[in-house]
Design goal:
Blueprint (H helix, E strand, L loop, with lengths): L10 E2 L6 H11 L12 E5 L6 E3 L1 H8 L5 H9 L20 E5 L2 E5 L6 E8 L2 E9 L2 E9 L5 E6 L2 E4 L5 E5 L2 E5 L5 E7 L3 E10 L5 E5 L2 E6 L2 E6 L3 E2 L5 E7 L12 E7 L5
Parallel strand pairs: 4-14, 5-18, 6-19, 19-20
Antiparallel strand pairs: 1-2, 2-3, 4-5, 6-7, 7-8, 8-9, 9-10, 11-12, 12-13, 13-14, 14-15, 15-16, 16-17
Length: about 270
């Protein structure tokens, strides 16, 4: 777990939470930061409260610097912003309405079951780089960001930030999550809410530099660190069990791709 300087004495990071406790805490907080609704966060315990609270890195820093009052903390602990929204959507979706999933200009529409489940959005050689999770009509997100060499920089599991550089900056405004590195360079941009997921910036590469680079409208398939194809302005309406998949058959000849993906880059090109 990423280490941070101590928060005010009212809060502490629990040593361990069970999967059930995390699920209950996500439901209690509306699947986002209690202050801004950001869908990436860490778990904190407020003295005297059973459920853990979800707090994003931005508001962790504000708490550390005493820029938020104890009364504001207590208010949002009792009524997280995602449960108090009137004009902007949170992460509670309508099971009778399709969710728009876009990577660059490529779009598909997903139906998530009432009982919950997963919808892989970006899959590379057996690894999930972006996945939607449905839980009682609420959405959460797991994703991994890499650098150009395929080194993992950030990991989030159902919203929980398991790993990220401590100097990175996070913001969530008007449904848009932006992540910048310590030099203020934009590394990830996505609209994330209850009826759409729209990724317009991010690197999703495995250790062999296979995967996808998303730059604005473009989705670039990467093979061994080189461009292997590009997708733009292609619409795929319909029901699919997955979104974008890259499958290097030379490197992984026995791997089986799960489900039906709307966009598939399968290559027999020899590895370099």
């Amino acid at each position: 777990m990423q280490q941070h300087s101590p928060l005010p004495s009212l809060l502490h990071q629990p040593a361990q939470l069970s999967a059930e406790q995390k699920q209950q805490s996500r439901r209690h907080c509306g699947f986002g930061c209690i202050f801004c609704g950001c869908p990436v966060y860490q778990y904190f315990q407020l003295d005297g409260q059973a459920d853990a609270l979800l707090i994003c890195p931005l508001h962790q820093r504000q708490l550390q610097k005493n820029l938020l009052s104890p009364s504001t903390l207590q208010q949002r602990a009792e009524r997280p912003i995602n449960l108090d929204r009137q004009h902007l959507p949170g992460f509670k979706y309508d099971p009778h309405r399709r969710i728009q999933l876009s990577v660059g200009m490529n779009t598909l529409y997903a139906d998530l079951p009432d009982a919950g489940g997963e919808h892989p959005l970006i899959w590379v050689n057996g690894e999930m780089f972006f996945c939607l999770h449905a839980d009682r009509h609420w959405l959460s997100f797991s994703f991994t960001l890499s650098d150009a060499a395929g080194q993992t920089l950030l990991q989030a599991e159902q919203g929980e930030l398991l790993h990220y550089p401590p100097d990175w900056e996070f913001s969530y405004d008007v449904m848009t999550l932006k992540i910048r590195d310590g030099q203020k360079r934009l590394l990830f941009t996505a609209q994330l809410c209850n009826d759409r997921v729209m990724i317009t910036k991010g690197l999703f590469l495995d250790e062999h530099k296979d995967g996808f680079a998303v730059e604005g409208n473009r989705v670039i398939a990467m093979l061994d660190g080189q461009k292997g194809g590009e997708y733009m302005q292609r619409l795929e309406p319909g029901r699919y069990q997955g979104g974008w998949a890259l499958f290097n058959k030379v490197r992984h000849p026995e791997l089986v791709m799960p489900g039906s993906f709307a966009f598939i880059c399968a290559t027999k090109r020899k590895s370099l």
